[in-house]
């Protein structure tokens, strides 16, 4: 959970976890058990693990396409190009993965519709149309392939195979979140934050200030003090919000928020009652990262709220969790409801517009023949 306007990490959770007090106290037996635990509780997943991002990474492709001018939310796709198959380097894309078949009866559909309903075939074409050079350049703007400046070490996310050029079929797969995409949760959070903050990406912050600790009786801890004690807790260092980059324009960020609104109101999270009925106008993008090997996919949910003026972003990811909307949606909605109502005490945002042009269009496309 992040404040996208400052970059402050307000909450960061990794599970399974462990008791850091027992480790700090020198309980070596406990530490060794953690080291050999197959569930790797010592791994701080938000910053030290990478996963297939699935359809949440369509958001990167949408950002790159809109900002570079190679794409428009009104781009049209006839039935063949929406459902597939389409071919790149002889590799077919679709009809599996179009996510439109059997409930969409009117064509053409547009890119906005493809994002809301998570059509892999549409996004494969958008990625190839903009080209690998542009797609990779926008990834780099968000620090993909580079070390993210942070208060703790962060694993570097990757979207290529050992830095090699992407062929058209590889770019197509990458563009909808499969292929070589291997992304950390913090990396995904940066994408979410820039969208919420009108295209400005703030440096993620975990530490606001460092002070000298008060004097502590060593007999209570059993551990010698690593630095001199200070009963006045003198401030050693302080940190302020810092602009890291402006990877996309304010207009692009606004357009992507509109697309995420479509996901929440008329698309793949609209059937989760707690998300749809939340008074806080949550917008979102789901992701189902396929990993193969008869394992359930990685379950991602990229969110921010309220839609008209995002105050928080929340990224949720459950390893091999399955369908992200069902796995993460209710939990995330409860978090926004509690924080906005009881902690920040925000006024309720305007209710969703029942005449929203996108939702109106969706309704017409979903009508039976």
Describe this structure in words.
By secondary structure, the chain is of the alpha+beta class. The protein has one domain: Beta-lactamase. It is 37% helix and 12% strand. A three-stranded antiparallel beta sheet has the order 9-10-11, sandwiched between helices. Strand 2 and strand 3 form a beta hairpin. Helix 4 packs across helix 7 and helix 7 packs across helix 9. The relative contact order is 0.15.
Helices and strands, with pairings:
Layout (H helix, E strand, L loop, with lengths): L19 H5 L3 H9 L8 H4 L9 H11 L7 E2 L1 H5 L2 E3 L2 E3 L15 E2 H6 L3 H11 L1 H10 L26 H8 L9 H12 L4 E2 L6 E3 L6 H4 L13 E4 L4 E3 L4 H17 L6 H4 L6 E7 L8 E8 L6 E7 L5 H20 L13 H10 L3
Antiparallel strand pairs: 1-4, 2-3, 5-8, 6-7, 9-10, 10-11
Helix pairs in contact: 4-7, 4-8, 4-12, 7-9
Major sheet details: 3 strands, antiparallel
CATH-level-2 architecture:
3-Layer(aba) Sandwich
Question: Helical segment tally?
Answer: 15
- Which stretches of 5+ consecutive residues score pLDDT under 50? none
Distance between the termini: 43 Å
Question: Notable features of this structure?
Answer:
Beta-lactamase, three-stranded antiparallel sheet, single chain, alpha+beta, 369 residues, two-stranded antiparallel ribbon
Write a brief structural summary.
The protein has 369 residues and is of the alpha+beta class.
């Amino acid at each position: 959970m992040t404040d996208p306007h400052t970059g402050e990490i307000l909450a960061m959770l990794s599970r399974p976890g462990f008791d850091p007090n027992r480790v700090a106290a020198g309980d070596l037996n406990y530490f060794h058990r953690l080291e050999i635990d197959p569930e790797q509780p010592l791994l701080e997943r938000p910053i030290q693990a990478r996963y297939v991002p699935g359809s949440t990474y369509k958001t990167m492709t949408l950002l790159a396409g809109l900002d570079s001018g190679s794409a428009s939310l009104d781009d049209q796709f006839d039935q063949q190009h929406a459902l597939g198959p389409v071919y790149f380097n002889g590799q077919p894309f679709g009809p599996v993965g179009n996510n439109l078949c059997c409930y969409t009866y009117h064509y053409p559909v547009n890119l906005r519709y493809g994002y809301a309903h998570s059509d892999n075939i549409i996004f494969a074409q958008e990625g190839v149309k903009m080209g690998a050079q542009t797609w990779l350049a926008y990834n780099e703007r968000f620090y993909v392939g580079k070390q993210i400046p942070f208060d703790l070490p962060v694993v570097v996310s990757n979207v290529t195979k050992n830095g090699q050029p992407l062929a058209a079929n590889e770019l197509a797969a990458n563009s909808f979140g499969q292929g070589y995409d291997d992304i950390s949760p913090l990396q995904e959070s940066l994408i979410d934050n820039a969208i919420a903050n009108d295209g400005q990406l703030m440096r993620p912050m975990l530490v606001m200030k460092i002070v000298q600790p008060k004097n502590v009786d060593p007999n209570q801890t059993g551990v010698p003090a690593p630095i001199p004690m200070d009963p006045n807790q003198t401030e050693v260092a302080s940190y302020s919000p810092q602009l890291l980059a402006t990877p996309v324009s304010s207009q692009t960020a606004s357009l992507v928020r509109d697309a995420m609104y479509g996901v929440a109101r008329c698309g793949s999270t609209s059937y989760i009652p707690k998300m749809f009925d939340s008074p806080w106008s949550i917008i979102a993008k789901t992701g189902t990262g396929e990993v193969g090997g008869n394992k359930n996919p990685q379950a991602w949910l990229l969110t921010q709220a309220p839609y008209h003026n995002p105050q928080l972003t929340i990224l949720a990811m459950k390893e091999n969790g399955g369908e992200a909307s069902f796995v993460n949606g209710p939990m995330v909605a409860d978090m926004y409801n509690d924080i906005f109502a009881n902690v920040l005490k925000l006024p309720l945002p305007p209710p969703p517009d029942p005449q929203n042009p996108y939702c109106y269009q969706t309704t017409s496309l979903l009508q039976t023949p």
